[in-house]
Structure formats: C-alpha cells, structure tokens
Amino acid sequence: MLRSVINQYNRKILLISSLTLIMLILFTSLSVYSVMQRQIEAIATSGLEVALENTVKHIQKQIMHSVTNTRAISTRIFLTQSLEKFYSDHSQKEGIEGIAQSIERILSTYFSGIEIYDIDDQLILSAGNLSKHRKLAVELNTGSGINTILFWNHDFIVRNSIQLVNEYGKPIGRVITEERMPNLTRIFTEATLIGNTSDFLLCAPVKGNNHEMDCFLRNFDDNQLKRIQRIMNNQPLPVHFALEGQTGVKFTKDYRQIEVVAAHSPVVYDLGAVLKINKDELNNYSTDQIRTIIFYLILILFFGIAIISWLTLPLIQKLINQKESYLNERLKENTCLQKIRSYLALDQSTEDTCKNILKFLLPVFEFQEMAVAKIKLEDKQYFTPKYQENLSNCISSAIISNGQQCGLLQVAYIRNFPSTLTYQQNLVDTIAHDLGRWYEGKEAEKRIIEMATHDALTGLPNRYLLRDRIEQVLVHDTRLQKQMAVLFIDLDHFKTINDSLGHEMGDLLLKAVANRLKSCVRNEDTVARQGGDEFIVVLNSIAESLDAAKVSQKILDSLALPFYIHNNELHIDGSIGIAVFPDDGVNAETLLKNSDNAMYHAKKNGRNNYQFFTDELNKSAYERHILGLDLRYALERNELLLYYQPVMDMPNHNLYGVEALLRWRHPEQKLITPDKFINLAEETGLIIPIGEWVIRTVCMQIKAWQDQGFYVPRVAINLSARQFRDKDLIKNISRILSETGVKAKYIALEITESMLIDNIEKVVETLNRLDAMGLHISIDDFGTGYSSLSYLKQFPIHTLKIDRSFVRDLVTDKNDRTIVAAIIAMAHSLEMEVIAEGIEIEEQLNFLVTQKCNHYQGYYFSKPVTVSEIELMLMNSVAQSNKIRAIGSAK
Ligand SMILES: Nc1nc2c(ncn2[C@@H]2O[C@H](COP(=O)(O)O[C@H]3[C@@H](O)[C@H](n4cnc5c(=O)[nH]c(N)nc54)O[C@@H]3COP(=O)(O)O)[C@@H](O)[C@H]2O)c(=O)[nH]1
C-alpha cells in the first residue's frame, strides 16, 4: 500500500518539479530576452551614435579642408601677381608661367584638378583633371565668396569655385578646384560593417524648399541621390532632425517606411547625416542570442529532470522510508501505550490508573504551556492541585475520556475559547510518544533494578538484595521477638560436574537446584544465590532452631533426588551451615559469616549434612583466618619443609620412588599438614610461590643426594590446580631443572583428574610439553573424578594413582574391589602403571598383588618421613642395588 503511495508521490514530484523547471526556464528566457533586447538596443544606440559622430567628424574635416585650401589659393600673392602680369601685354607670357608654376605646386599638394579663369571667365590654365561628369551634385552652403558642390564621379568629389582678387580687392579671375574625397567614399562603404541592413545617408536641404532634401544613399552608382520628403506620414525622418541641427538616436521609420534605429547628426555646411540599421536585424541578433540561451536552458532542464529522478527522488524516497519507520515506531509506541494501560490496570484500580496517567500527563502539558488537564471518570471530574493551580486563562486543556479502563486516550485542545474543543491529533501523538518513552524508560529501569538485585542465571535475589532482605527480616523478627535462620548451602562436588559435563549443564543444574530450594521453603522466606554453587536460604520468623534443622533436612532430601537434564541423570548433594538469629549473630554480615563456617564444618563432616554454627566453629574460622595471615610469611621465615613418603614396588617391596609432601612448621603450632593450608594457599594465590619452592627444593635435594652418591629414585611432586594452569609453569620448571642441573626423568608430576577436564586443548598442550621435556606424569586420586580411562588416552600419562578411598574398604567392600580391579586392568591395557595409595594393611596389599598392581604407597610400609629418614631408606636401597631398576626403564 505504502509502496504504491510512494510511487504515486514519485510521479507527482517528478511532474511538479518538471513543470516548475519549465516555468522557471520560460520565465528566465523571457527575462533574459527582455534584458538582452534592451542591452542590444542600448549597445546598438550607443554604437550607432559613436560611429556616426566619428563619421561626421571625418566628413566635416575633409570638406572644410577642401574649402579652406581653395580659399587659401585665392589669396596667394604669387598667383594673383602672375595673373596680373598675364593681363599686361609685355609680360603675359611671364604671367602664364607664374600661374602655371603656382597651380602646379598647389595641385601636387591637395587637389585632383585646378582651373584658372580670367575675368571674362575664359579658361587661362588648367592642371590635373576636373570632372566632366558630375553626378548627384549637391551644393553646399559654405558661406560667402565660395561656391562648393559635392558630387559623385566614381568617388566623392568636392568642387570649389572662388573669385581671384588683386591686392586692391579688384576681381582678376576665378579658380576652380576639385578634391577627391576617398575617405568619404569609404565611410559609405564601411557603413555596412555595422550590420547587413545598416546604411549611411548624407543629405542636404533643397534650397528654397523646406519639405525636401537631397540625400546620398549608399548605392551611388545607381543614381542614389534621392530627393526625399523630410516628413513622411506626419513623422519626421531621422535625417530631418539632423538637418534641423539635432543630434541623437531615433527608433522610427525611415524614408522606406521601414522600422529602423537611426543615429542622426548635423554636418558642416547645412548637411545632415544618418547612420541607421533595420530594427529587424537587431531583433534577429537578440533572437539568435536568446536561441542559444534557450538551448542551454533546455539542456539544464534535462539535467534538472535527470537529477530529480536519479538523485532527488531516491532522497525523497529515503525520507519517505524514514517517515514510514517513524510511523511504525509511533505505532509501536501506541502499542506501548496500550501496554501501559493494561500494565497499570493490572495492579491498580481504574481510578488509580487514570490518576497515574494524568500525573504523567501534567508535566507534559506544563511543558507545552498548557494549563488545564481534566480527567473524566464515570462522570466524575478529577481535579488535581496542579490543575487548580494552572487553571488561569484556560489557554488549553486536555481531556482523557473514560471508555473501558480509561478507554481510548483522547486529548482535546482548546485555545482561547474553553468551550470549543479542537481535537488535535499531534497532541495525542505527542502524548502517546512520551508515554511510550516513559514506559520504555520504566521497563529499562525495572530491568536495571532487576539486574542489580537478582542473579542473572537463576533469577534469585543476589547477594546485595539478600543482605537487604536479611536486614528487613531482622527488623521484623526483632519486633516480633522471633528467631530467624540463615542456611548456607554449598553443593558438593559441583565443580566436578561443571568441569566434566560443561558449563551449560552446570548452569542448568544450578537453575534446577534453585527451583528445588524454592519448593522447600515458604513464599515469605528468601532463597538467594550467593555465587557459584552457594545458595542462601533465609527462614523468617521461626519458632525455634529445630525448624531450621527440619528445613535443612528437607533441602538435603530434595537435593538427593536425581536431576534429569538433557537426558542426563545427575546427582548432587549439599552441605548446609546454619546460623540462627539472635544467638549466632544480630546482623546480616555475622549471620552469613557464621553460616559459612558451619557449612565448612558440614563439608568436613563428610558432606551431605547440615551443621549448626557453634562457638568452636567460630574459633576454628578465626584460626583459619589467622593461619591465612601467617602463611604469607611462611616462605620468607623458612617455615616450610618437605617430607617424603616411599612408593614401593609390588610384590617385592623394592623402593620405586618417593613422593614429596609439604609440611609447615608453624612457630606457635606444631607441624601443620597440607590439607590445612593448601586450600588457603590456593585461595590467596600463595600456591604459586610455594609450589615453585617445592619444585626447587626437590630438585636441590635430588642434586644433593646424587652428589652424596645416594641411589635417587623418581621424586613425585604434587601440583595444585592453580599451579597447573599457571602460564609460567613450564618455563619455571625448565629454569629450575637447568639451574639445579637435575634431569627431568627424576621428577614425576602428580595432577588430579579434575584438572584434566577444563580447557582440554590447553591441558593436552601443557602435558605434551612436560612429557617432551622428559617429566613423568601421574594422575592422583584417580577414581574420584568423572574421567573415563578411554578419555585419558588423549593425554601423555604414565601412571595412575588409585585414590585411597577405594583402597580403604577393599577388604570389606566388593564394589571397591571391582572398581580397583577394573582400573588396574584398563590402565594396563593403556600401558600405564598403577600405584595404589593408602595401603595400611596386608590384606589390601594382597588383593592388589593378585590384581597385578605395579606399586603401592601407604602407612603399611611407611608414613611420610623427614629427609634424614628417607635417606636411610635410600641407603638401604643401595644395598639392594642389584635389584634396582634404572629410572626410565619403566614407561
Ligand atoms: N599442591 C600440593 N599439594 C600437596 C603438597 N604436599 C601434599 N599435598 C597434598 O596435600 C594433601 C595431604 O597430604 P598429606 O597430609 O601429606 O597426606 C599424604 C599422605 O600422608 C597421605 N597418606 C599416605 N599413605 C596413607 C595411608 O596409608 N593412610 C592415610 N590415611 N593417609 C595416607 O596421603 C597424602 C598423599 O596423598 P596423594 O598426594 O594423593 O598421594 C594431599 O592431597 C597431597 O596431595 C604439595 O607440595 N603441593
């Protein structure tokens, strides 16, 4: 629909633009034409005037020159004396010679012919050529004593005739001169240069006849001296003005009754001159110009249309598209408006909904300087203080009419006359738009608050909101003198599931756990996610602490049921720590801390149980904190040391290797085992320097033993997860090996199964590099993780250490026996050796012997011992040197 409207628009725009362009071009053409016409006339006028002025100057100069020269001859003494001599008998000959000499000289200077006549008008002497034929002769009014005629004989010629007088003024003869006027002839010829129809006229009045004149026209040879009426059809001809002594230009008709532009000017001796051109020729000239201009304008027109259709129309189309999306947005906003209404109506009464909308509208109207807002609600009018305040002047008003649940929003707008309502669509749009924006803003605000206070994964309150809730419950329960409980729930072995099955599964499990927890408590209780696999349950207003125990057990039972996620059956337990208000704390922070400590206690207690917070726990938590502080200085105070536990061959009990086990000689406590501080070291990052210290100490010890000539078996070093992930691990081990001069084959690195699962590519790369260096790699605590043996195939692993939890009940638990037997068999099939950990009794050993387990480690042979004690064992081993295998002969 909109497309066809756009196409229609396009056609209209193109038509209107083209017509506008054409009109514009026509108008421009006419304007240019009239301007040019005037310009051309002005140019022609001034051109004709100037040309005529110059021409007239020339003509005058020539004719006057001729007349003046002739007059000068008449006064020549030598001539007049010679003429007088001619009259005396005795010197007539001498006189004729003198006359001849005289006119000969004059002739060469000015004239084409001279004749001297005596007093009786008899020719005495003639020089040069005087014209026999005088065509188109016009007598000029040159003044007294001289008769001048201008005539045509292949050229313009001026003939002057003047009386010769002696020194006493007595007439003695007459001289006639003729002077050719080539310049005047040229002037006639060149008049055509101005234009094809240009013409030059030189006219003299007819003596005794004021109505006529004799005029030289351009085509002289055709007898073009015309006697012309000076006024024709009551209109004076241009030359009439010239003969009247006037100079100027006239747009008038000439003697042929053709429209001309004529410049006129008087010429000396009563002559008048006109230089003219036909007006048609001028018009033609400007028409030519205008044609050229129109040609270019039409070109511009085509360009213009092309630009409109190729550039402007797409631009307009773009604008229309923008308008379209704007309208769509508006539409959305209107939908938004509907949403607001239903949203508000959901929680509130109709009246409140309307009030709220009005509340929102008022500032909008204020902004638009509108004064009054009214709401019609079931015939009631709702007046707000703002309304009263702004009632003045009744500039305008808005009415929200009530249909269903406030109905359609209609805004009426009054200007000047409150009684006249003018519905103003724009205003409705504006309000709809603003409401839409407001709604979006509210939604965003809601989302931000939600994000700030809730856990994104489970939607449960996060730790910040949790604290707030606890504080609220504390206020409430203090007032009611009730107890409340904070349950700190940590999922057991969640990390293993997360690592083995992936984070996506881990996330889904956490969501499912969140739902289970919610199902175990009342609506008014709070279930929150503290982070990771830790959840907090706040039980409001409990009667006694036993209630907390009951809920905890309910939670444990609920968690014990399998979870079905993406066709996987998952099992997870939880450890719960309980802190009860007011006995275990009176604020959120203490209750959370103490429930956390209780949860640790539950973990220690074998997991999948709940524990109440006790003062002893508080004490141990405090101790743990202090221990953490002390550990920082353990390295620099040289408080760390290594114990070594032998690993024996099976079944012959030869020394196969030793495992280095860390101990901390605390200044105030006795020897501390690593299970008390390794986690602390991991959490604080101290494990990196501590781990490096262990590797270096082991290497130095090996070197020392070698230097002392001891038999040195392979020494196993435990790597923690953080250490294994450390990017500098390989670099550090290489450096230590090269610095101590110990060969890599003397070192075995023990890592746990769980370390293999996360970021497999990186793990494979690290293990391959360690293997390439010649280090031996063992998997510690095997069986507690989720890795299958076939999964281990991709890693360069040499030894599996079966976790002692499987060994512990070997004698009594058939399942454990089956598992251990299977592990040994499969490890062998993958060409790995097996070490059984935690061998304490002979029966355990015997079973393992039957399963062809390669090595064993445990209190049965030796607990971890000091350096000097292990050295004794090394020495004994030397004693059985013939039985000792060289390191590296095994895989
Ligand atoms: N990252 C590092 N971890 C280390 C380092 N040194 C030790 N550890 C780890 O600490 C855990 C506890 O170690 P420890 O207290 O030394 O216990 C070891 C043995 O004493 C104990 N063991 C050995 N035989 C038996 C037995 O027959 N019964 C029994 N109850 N316990 C026995 O087992 C621990 C050795 O286990 P494992 O390492 O799995 O071989 C322990 O997990 C160490 O890994 C260190 O330098 N860095």
Automatic annotation (TrEMBL):
Superkingdom per UniProt: Bacteria
Name of a matching Pfam family: EAL
UniProt entry tagged with the keyword Membrane: yes
Gene Ontology BP, a term: cellular response to nitric oxide
Residue ranges of every copy of the EAL domain listed in the record: 624-878
PROSITE patterns the UniProt entry points to: EAL (PS50883), GGDEF (PS50887)
Domain GGDEF: 482-615
Key words, A-Z: Membrane, Transmembrane, Transmembrane helix
Reactions it catalyzes: 3',3'-c-di-GMP + H2O = 5'-phosphoguanylyl(3'->5')guanosine + H(+)
Magnesium keyword on record: no
InterPro entries reported for this sequence: Biofilm_reg_signaling, EAL_dom, EAL_sf, GGDEF_dom, Nucleotide_cyclase, Rev_trsase/Diguanyl_cyclase
Name by which UniProt lists this protein: Diguanylate cyclase (GGDEF) domain-containing protein
